[in-house]
Protein 1
Amino acid sequence: MLRRDLLGGVATILPGAALAQATAPAAADGIVEKRVFEMASYATRGGATIPNLRVGYQTMGTLNPAGTNAVLVCHFFSGDSHAFGRYEAGGPAGYWDAIIGAGKAIDTNRYFVVSADCLVNVNVPNARTVTTGPATLNPATGKPWGMDFPVIAMRDFIEVQKALLDSLGVKKLHMVTGPSNGALQTVEWAAAYPNFIERCMPVIGGAEFDAWMIGWLNIWEAPIKLDPNWRNGDYYGAGREAPLRGLAEAWKIVTLHAMDRAALTAQGRKVVEGQNPARNINDQYAIEKWLDERGMARARTSDANSFIYMVRANQLFLNEYASYEAALARAPHRWLVIPSPNDHVFLPDAMREMVETLRRGGKAVQQAEVRGPLGHLNGVVGMAPLTEQIRAFINN
Amino acid sequence: MLRRDLLGGVATILPGAALAQATAPAAADGIVEKRVFEMASYATRGGATIPNLRVGYQTMGTLNPAGTNAVLVCHFFSGDSHAFGRYEAGGPAGYWDAIIGAGKAIDTNRYFVVSADCLVNVNVPNARTVTTGPATLNPATGKPWGMDFPVIAMRDFIEVQKALLDSLGVKKLHMVTGPSNGALQTVEWAAAYPNFIERCMPVIGGAEFDAWMIGWLNIWEAPIKLDPNWRNGDYYGAGREAPLRGLAEAWKIVTLHAMDRAALTAQGRKVVEGQNPARNINDQYAIEKWLDERGMARARTSDANSFIYMVRANQLFLNEYASYEAALARAPHRWLVIPSPNDHVFLPDAMREMVETLRRGGKAVQQAEVRGPLGHLNGVVGMAPLTEQIRAFINN
């Protein structure tokens, strides 16, 4: 959580698996169970083979006999399956708990909601996140894969989720949705399996991953590779230290990039208590110390190599299609696109182009905006006001 | 220069001392001479003393007998005094040569134009840049200052320029102007010496340096400190290597941050020739290789500690005033504020707030926009279309 004293009363957050608890409305009673989906072998889109693939997932609601009332929720870059519900009474709620649950916008009395941990999920140290990635033991060597893990594309996320949904008896997705990286998965799903999907609701993302986006994600990951403890990804095991400083810097960039200046206005130009940046070059402003601390806290709960693989999966968004336009032309008909007007990751003009591209392809596209001081993150923690628009889209 | 093959015909650039030559209109004939201004001792605003201060400067035009026709041009973060003219026939032109020179918007037939290298200028390896900063020899030790160099505030830039202008016989500035960091200096000048200034023209900057801005500049500098060669700034001298990898990453962030996706659209999703990012985790997209190469090229022509000191000088913008509003209330009356509408460093809404703050303070504020695909950098390389608006402001 972002300290309230820092942000002057703006209740806000760091991207993270359990970030919404402070801002979620009155808790749902829904307790969810984390389960594990396994595949003995998975062939990646890049032509490699991963034995013993495991990813975590959770569901809420009941699948109808026809298997047609499922809603798939895909998580953001730093998240996991915990989009809704609580793992125990009084525990933290999922990041979209405000809009998923009994009687909520995505009503679990009507829909069977599924969310899974992605491959190469960053939250390796979190015991509840189940993923397969560079930190996983390679059965062929008995050691963690490290940077020998196969490249994972966004499309691989979809293929594993498709196998999971098949195993659950889902015949059709009533809707696929998710924020940020989850919106990219929504679009990747739409291009890959248009006949399997009725509705798409990408939130704060889904626009073309062009050179600007590819470059920014390179910048996100770059500090990891500067950390001498990274050792080309070979930092697992006794006597070695993880590249926490580099990973912390990476999370600092993500943290600020995913916010907006409006969230920090109250913080202004405060300095760290007892320090004087005007006299001592190593003294800091409060925002610097806050970024350092939050970055390091997030580094301790994530894995550096997995961060690098997640970056690549994002860069490979729609990599199998001739163009963004060609990919979207394949997609299902019905869309609700939800940008954040002060988003500095997926820029408003890129989101407008996405809507125009969908419309040129003949799709029926509704739009809504998620607003608030948090920029990109509005789409993770500020969704409650969109309840009626989402309800109307999903129920009609 | 950004390679034209990469950007698909968008003639564009990296922030740098001599970046405008490819895009500047027909060259001025004006040859300028780089000179050196020296102070035996300078007392910083933070209370330290710097002996043997030296900064470079250049002028064009003739000061009138009253000393009232001077225009001061302050440079951007990575720039130096080379705003106009050429040091030799056929050499590169200054970054604002399109609007400064005989018959141009800032007409050197009428005005005496001055530009100086700032303290802690990053372009230490450039023989034409003359600065005093962490790479300078400390006379007390005979070694470079390193991180023992006193903190320099934006206000110190102004004090040294004021001493220079006094030495040249300037009695009043007809106008003070500059892009980005130069715009911050313009506003700092306005608050410090309102009666010395007739007109202020901040370009792509000058908005409040709030937590968002302080945080971003922390992120710019952070990779330097991750590089093991940085050694807390003690990397000068035989047998030591400069932290080029960290500095290159810092410049990569600045480079992308100072552009807009519109500049990179043509580059799209090209991969490095012969590489396959979908199969090999270390293979790259073309934009990544380009950022790496440009970052490293810029690192080789700059100094890492000076980058850190420049960051702090920016963070200390208007640090002596109770508030941004209080500082601007002191300023002279006449303003022409020129934001870039696709600027990702000084955001359009922050620039709007700046104009509103000036107007609340009773100032006469004109506005113009500098447009183009380059985002923030439009204000460095795209100023020619504003010639008539600038001319009208400066001549009336």
Protein 2
Amino acid sequence: MAIKKGRASFAFSPPPSVITFAAVGGKMENEGPMGSYFDKTNDDPYFTTYTYEQGESKLQKEAIRLALKKINLQSENVSFMFGGDLLNQCVGTTFGIRDYEIPFLGIYGACSTMSEGLLLSALSVDSKAGELVLAVTSSHYCTAERQYRFPLDYGGQRTPTAQWTATASGALVVSPSDSSPFVRGASVGRIIDLDIHDANNMGAAMAPAAADTIKRFFKDFKLAPKDFDYIVTGDLGKIGSELLIELLSEDGIDITKNHLDCGMMIYDFEKQDVHAGGSGCGCAASMLCGYFLPRIKSGEIKNIFFAATGALMSPTVVQQGESIPSISHGVWISHERGN
Amino acid sequence: MAIKKGRASFAFSPPPSVITFAAVGGKMENEGPMGSYFDKTNDDPYFTTYTYEQGESKLQKEAIRLALKKINLQSENVSFMFGGDLLNQCVGTTFGIRDYEIPFLGIYGACSTMSEGLLLSALSVDSKAGELVLAVTSSHYCTAERQYRFPLDYGGQRTPTAQWTATASGALVVSPSDSSPFVRGASVGRIIDLDIHDANNMGAAMAPAAADTIKRFFKDFKLAPKDFDYIVTGDLGKIGSELLIELLSEDGIDITKNHLDCGMMIYDFEKQDVHAGGSGCGCAASMLCGYFLPRIKSGEIKNIFFAATGALMSPTVVQQGESIPSISHGVWISHERGN
């Protein structure tokens, strides 16, 4: 049963577990500082398919395959799954999961998709509607660039505030279990729109949404940054991360000591030409499934608040002059079961 | 608590209620046979905004406003909401709900969005994560045509199998309550792809998904078509409805006596040039919120199985030669609370 902690915050009692997880990435991700934490990487941006879109689907298919394989779970035993991605009509997911025939609930949270999927998977297990519930997401540099900005062949210049969409995927399965990591609670995000119009500065657009959710979570759960090893945001990058720290400090919340941003972790700013950092659903998802969850499982990390962040922008409405609304869903993941 | 009935089917115990609902439509919808069942219609396709996309957002904003107003519910008392639509990055929803500041979980189920939203809202109330959970969706003829097919100005010929995307929205709120309509149970749909490649024949693409969910629901719940006043599909239209009946009869399930399709109900085939019928997220959502829910509330209708259907197509991948995978989520809505 979920225990309400605030308007849209709830604790899970007992907390369900993340019983398996896997991360898959591309060439840039392999060459970055986190390369060794991926379960598998592939240098071919097509992932041995014919189009970038099929390649992105293959990323999800592989992440699911590896996550299931780790615990010898057959796909037909998965109750149902949540998934989504950045592509129009979420086709990265649709075509990636089609062959598994797992009952499927599509979600759209832009780059916050993994925290939304994890939240809803935990909710589903908590309600006993499902026993083994999967969440997956992905992003791909080549599909995202041509959909949101310019076709790669155009060779457009990237602005200093632009972020590099990660070619990566993460998949996990939530189930009732006695072993860590546990999903202790969550806060559903609100749409926050501070009138940012620059589609090449998503960090600035998303930072206020992350600040809102982090603030609300701490208040609702009566917790503070010191209760967590890390406050993990999705893909704010350099600019967004600085803004987040500034916004939270205005409310007396200091996360300077334990803030990590997946978009800052995934690439090497010295050696890789990624401008303001990494982004994309696959960035936060692969860092969660490849780096954080294994460390929470082992006990090396005790508690994180995982607040992936999404810019709910569309090229159509940006061209119509609209601003970029953003959202962040937060999930408390712990090595300890709690009371 | 949800009671598992099958892999992805569950009953709610006690069943939550749909405590308020509203339907909003456009000119064609007002002129059709169901015109009087809409809470509000507007002849202006822009809904007094500057773009069709803003118009679609306005539809959702209005549907939510009217649903809340009926029971004097303030938006700040809504725990959180589920919403989505057909537009890239679900911007119909994002911009429609932005001003309400209701915590928001984005979903993507194409035209099955209302059954997905209702299912997840009921699940959230059931788990006690939320007390008042809202679901909304919309579609708009002018935004859908230019995104999926041709700009309206092009004046393209429509094929006989094409359907007319409804300009409509439906919104509802689920909460624990003693009054009808009750959400008794649900079945999560699977992606079904029988290799249909014609983006102008979505009924044919979606019928197998509806058949799969209806069959599975009856089997899991040990129920039959005779236990329901109506088996309601979303927007199969003429061709899809015929196919659905044929597919189910192969499995010995006869729904000829009580099948209704929202895409067949919403327009007048004699007087309105809609070819194979209505479609779009707003079609099933407005028929549910405008026609079915009020009749279930009054007891005129006792039980329906509401299986909205979605074609998970994207113009990009259709142009790349892909087929059209489809999905249908089913929800059992009843005047009776059950045991």
